Amino acid sequence: MKLKFLNAALIVSGLIAAVPAVQAAPQVEVLHYWTSGGEAKSIAELKKMMEAKGVVWKDFAVAGGAGENATTALKARVIAGSPPTAAQIKGPSIQEWGAEGVLANIDAAATEGKWDTLLQPVVSNVMKYKGHYVAVPVNVHRVNWLWINPEVLSKAGAKVPTNFAEFFDAADKIKKAGLIAVAHGGQPWQDTTVFESVVLGVGGAKFYDKALVKLDPASLTSPTMIKSFETLAKIKTYIDKDSAGRDWNLATAMVINGKAGMQFMGDWAKGEFTAAGKVAGKDFLCVPAPDTEKSFTFNIDSLAMFKVKNPEEQKAQLTLATAVMSPEFQEVFNLNKGSIPVRAGISRAKFDSCATRSMDDFAASGKAGALEPSLAHGMAVDSAKAGAIQDVIAKFMNSTMTPQAAVDALAKAAKTK
Ligand code: BGC
Questions:
Q1: In a 3-state reduction of DSSP, which class is residue 199?
Q2: Nearest C-alpha to atom 6 of ligand 1 is from which residue?
Q3: CA 389 → CA 13, 71, 375, 381, 415, distances in Å?
Q4: Using CA atoms in the order 381, 5, 393, 142, what is the torsion angle rounded to 10 degrees?
Q5: What pLDDT digit, counting tens, does each position of 331-349 carry?
Q6: Ligand 1 centre from 141 Cα, in Å?
Q7: Domains by residue range for the chain, with CATH
Q8: Which of 47, 103, 138, 179 has its CA at a distance of 20 to 30 angstroms from the CA of residue 401?
Q9: What is the pLDDT of residues 232-287, one digit of tens each?
């Protein structure tokens, strides 16, 4: 069994105990972790759409950025034999859950909706387990962004950075102006989000791929990786002392309110700016993280479907999958979420400059071989390795660990089974 946490005996006994009662109206229970301002507005659109189709929406929201707490809650429910209808699961983890035999085949929705023609293979392959769709993709998030408050920059006399030299110059000026240069929340996944953008900037897409996707031991301990940790250590000096445990959206709020100048974060951060009524290119800027202009680290949200007993719920599950892939949902959700549609055929008209740039860069980096899966967001490696690597980065961020010690620990973590 791949997911060590699932105990077969418990599942069997749980399933027997959890035969569902006959329901009056079809219902879907959806586990997600979209609880910040922008995220909640986004998921509310799906709820609205399902209710319009006569399906009762049971919200199973578990707060905690990047789903750290949601995964724990999901495991408990599956072990108890009462999985939700759908859960936000991404990347290689879909295969891990598939191997447990708990995911539902939703080919019926995919065939009817022609998903194979609307999705790129890099996306559809991840949504399938053994050739059958078990998950529906929601969006494409770009991770290697830097979010900027232009007013802070101009107060400090700094200019928008495109590379690390300019970034540190801007950071120095913001600090001198008495403001916080880098808004950050000290949580392992946020630390790793910054780290992966730094590796991408310092080493480029090919290096990123060798080191953080293929986990090549020589790359993990190379001078380029040492330099990445040195750069990360320098970034640390621009983060305020109260960052420990801070949620990502509170860090974004610091940029929105002009307390801080910049934040490394994926474009779910844009959802916070949008929810606060801020306009891209005017009230806030999105630029690729330093030295990463030509690359794109992607993070694709998806809802994996669980095997459920009730035929009404099974039908509602397919309705849910179809709704997620519909043009209406793809547009309205992504406008709120900060991401871009995952499927072909959606008009760009309503999307802002950050989103259209993301669309262009997604296509261009795909052609140039610079489209890379995000490590911090569960796209690059299996969950055991990702967890071990994340622990190393968090330790580096929270101690005086040297870059040499960090690369050695990283190489060791990459071997986690
Ligand atoms: C998810 C986003 C989410 C973010 C913060 C990422 O891993 O892909 O949908 O908004 O974490 O929770």
A1: helix
A2: 66
A3: 35, 18, 9, 10, 10
A4: 50
A5: 999 999 999 999 999 999 9
A6: 8
A7: 27-138+300-357 (3.40.190.10), 142-298+364-413 (3.40.190.10)
A8: 179
A9: 999 999 999 999 999 999 999 999 999 999 999 999 999 999 999 999 999 999 99
